[in-house]
Amino acid sequence: MKPPTLLPPIDRLSALLERFRVRAHLFHSGALCGVTHFAAEPGRGFLHVLRRGELVVTHRGRSGVPRKIKVAEPTLLFYPRPLEHHFHNAPSEGAEFVCATLDFEGGDRHPLVVALPPVIVLPLRSAEGLEHTLALLFAESERLRCGHRLLADRLFEVLVLQLLRWLLDHPQEAGIPRGLLTGLAHPKLARALTALHERPGEPWSLASMAEAAGMSRSAFASEFKALLGIAPADYLLRWRVSIAQTMLAGGASVKEASSELGYASAASFSRAFAQASGSSPRAWLASRPVH
């Protein structure tokens, strides 16, 4: 009997995070007592690490998350997108935290922001693989040394990446809804998705995407739709338009974006852009808020 062919490992995250970066900024280390309010700001998330103590986290009604969460052990609380929340701690004893804001390039267009649930509550005892980064982060936050804030920011960014790895390996345990992460967790679909992310300008067809996944066209299309909730061609269109929006916001021309993303002309690119976003590239640029 012929042994099964072992597929080479793939990097499912680098192409995503190179196109759409995440920046972390340490803003608190130490005890929090009483009630602490964290406001929702466009494009901004939070990563809190409870080191010691207990707390109750509350959210507004109709926010899509539980109104009250009790945390009684060292825990990581990840808010990938803007969501107002409050920490309630004992007024005298408090609880000890290390906290960072997370700025996602592209804001609510960041593919991982779209794919993740509003909040992830992960006890540290369950998060294997994070121990060394957390130890370094706690060490940097305990005493002031040259460059400690810059190093803490980078360690938080490493922690985000390691957390995303953990989520890809435990999508059901983490309660990940169907979408990009459930697709990347699939051993065959991940190969096609990674290829699309790395080479969005190639002339992809259903056949070539299925070939990248090592699947038949019918099986690929069916499994893709079941796990991501969208057809492969529609996903490719949205991915290209998300990249185009980032390029245009950074000053690239419509012609440059269309060439980068494999369109035959600026006109065909503009039609595809309008199909996915509901407006032309120039109208989309004009509608963006001025900072």
Description:
- With 291 residues, the protein is α+β, with helices and mostly antiparallel strands.
- It has two domains: 14-169, Jelly Rolls; 186-287, Orthogonal Bundle (Arc Repressor Mutant, subunit A), CATH 1.10.10.
- Helix content is 43%, strand content 20%.
- It contains twelve helices and nine strands.
- The protein has helices at 14-19, 111-115, 131-142, 148-169, 180-184, 189-198, 206-213, 217-228, 232-249, 254-260, 266-277, 281-287, and strands at residues 22-32, 34-38, 44-52, 55-58, 68-71, 75-79, 85-89, 95-104, 120-123.
- It has a five-stranded antiparallel β-sheet with strand order 1-8-3-6-9. The protein has a four-stranded antiparallel β-sheet with strand order 2-7-4-5, with no helix packed on it.
- The longest helix has 22 residues, at 148-169.
- The chain is globular, with a radius of gyration of 21 Å.
- The mean pLDDT is 89.
CATH hierarchy class name of the largest domain: Mainly Beta
**Topology-level CATH name of the largest domain:** Jelly Rolls
Show unreliable segments: none
Shape: globular
Mean pLDDT: 89
Report the strand count: 9
- Name the strands of the widest sheet in spatial order: 1-8-3-6-9
CATH architecture of the largest domain: Sandwich
Helix content: 40-55%
How many separate domains?
2
CATH superfamily of the largest domain: Jelly Rolls
Q: Main beta sheet: strand number and arrangement?
A: 5 strands, antiparallel
Gyration radius, rounded? 21 Å
